[in-house]
Amino acid sequence: MAQDSCSTLEPYALRVMGDSMEPEFADGCVVIVDPGYVPRDGSYVIVEFAGDVFFRQLVFDGERRFLKPLNPKYGSFELTPPYTIRGGVVQRAGRRRSQRKHYD
Asked: How far apart are CA 44 and CA 90, in angstroms?
């Protein structure tokens, strides 16, 4: 992630690339990420893991954590240290109000 004049705790926008989170998040849609978000089971998160950055649903299974795509074409995988959660998705942006959606 490039550093600029924004605080690292300020929300930022990302464009979704690929279809791994469809149908909820289509390829090319814009999501708003809150770096201060405290993730919980079922949260949509941005995670740095194994040299890549992923946008997935975080799933808890006891003490274990998994990253799950919404598109069944892709598989879930266990999230093992080291990893960094860069924030939680709090909104899906859209050109029309009906396309916008907020997430807890």
From this structure: 8
